[in-house]
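Backbone-to-sequence.
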């Protein structure tokens, strides 16, 4: 995952095309579009995900594996969105923060992408075990399992982002300083790597939900339906948000390799640049959507949010103790999750 900058396109050049390709209009569109949306997405993501973290810490038990994954998913969303104001400056003035910041910020974006999809896959697989193989799910209730799964997820995400740290650099393009890959090869490797991870996660999640639905149709119990429903909605929203970006990124990789004749056409390339700019914001908008989904679908989350909004200092200790006790008791009867 990366923020695309178009200042290098505000000059008319051939760029491998059969005729001059003027992309100045894309630069103007991307600058205005990113300035507005980055501001909105940053504000909503910070407020929403901080609320989720506060509710989990204050009212819920992190013994629940699902709560652990939701906690980490909110952190991943904060990592992905917390740097958006810097990219507003980037789109207007070029990269003015130095090469170290170029590597670090893009690494954070990459880590946010990989950790988000890994935690969603783990959440789905955990729900799959709870429905299809409850005995295996009981073994996973050990708190150490949640810690180990979290550490493994972050470690994989960091390792997957190492190429970004190595190959991202400040590049002078037509007098503008941008933060980009110096060569096509590492850029292509990074793009294809993200596409493959996204596809693998998609296949795993589809297989899990196919088995879950098949099992629930044979079961008369309604106990697992609500958690499955919320996780299913979260997963669907995630893939609707990220699929267009991955498709556009794949097409741009094909364009860089000029695999087909149409990829040498200026109009096609410009449409692809417009699509990249819009799909990036759609993908990042996912950072704001999970808290909204918890509020609309998660009954317990709504109850905790109401308590937080009607917070009374004198009753704080008594209320918190009572709520945590109820959550702990509920954990032994169910999975004790946020919803």
């Amino acid at each position: 995952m990366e923020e695309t900058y178009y200042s290098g396109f505000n000059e008319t050049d051939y760029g491998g095309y059969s005729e001059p390709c003027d992309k100045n209009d894309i630069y103007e569109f991307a600058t205005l579009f990113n300035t507005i949306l980055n501001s909105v997405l940053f504000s909503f993501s910070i407020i929403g995900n901080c609320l989720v973290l506060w509710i989990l810490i204050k009212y819920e038990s992190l013994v629940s594996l699902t709560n652990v994954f939701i906690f980490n998913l909110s952190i991943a969303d904060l990592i992905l969105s917390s740097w958006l104001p810097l990219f507003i400056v980037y789109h207007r003035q070029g990269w003015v923060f130095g090469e170290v910041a170029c590597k670090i910020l893009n690494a954070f974006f990459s880590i946010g992408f990989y950790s988000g999809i890994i935690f969603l896959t783990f959440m789905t697989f955990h729900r799959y075990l709870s429905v299809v193989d409850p005995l295996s799910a009981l073994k996973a209730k050990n708190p150490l399992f949640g810690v180990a799964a979290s550490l493994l997820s972050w470690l994989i995400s960091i390792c997957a982002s190492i190429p970004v740290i190595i190959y991202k650099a400040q590049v002078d393009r037509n007098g503008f300083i941008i933060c980009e890959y110096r060569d096509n090869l590492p850029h292509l490797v990074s793009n294809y790597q993200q596409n493959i991870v996204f596809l693998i996660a998609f296949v795993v999640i589809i297989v899990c939900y196919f088995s879950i639905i098949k099992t629930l149709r044979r079961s008369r119990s309604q106990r697992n339906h609500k958690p499955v429903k919320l996780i299913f909605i979260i997963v669907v929203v995630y893939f609707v948000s990220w699929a267009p970006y991955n498709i556009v990124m794949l097409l741009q990789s094909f364009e860089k390799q000029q695999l087909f004749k149409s990829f040498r056409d200026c109009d096609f390339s410009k449409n692809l640049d417009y699509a990249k700019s819009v799909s990036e914001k759609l993908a990042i908008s996912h950072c704001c959507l999970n808290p909204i989904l918890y509020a609309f679908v998660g009954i317990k989350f709504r109850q905790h949010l109401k308590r937080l909004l009607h917070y009374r200092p004198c009753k704080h200790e008594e209320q918190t103790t009572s709520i945590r006790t109820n959550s702990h008791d509920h954990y032994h009867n169910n999975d004790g999750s946020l919803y």
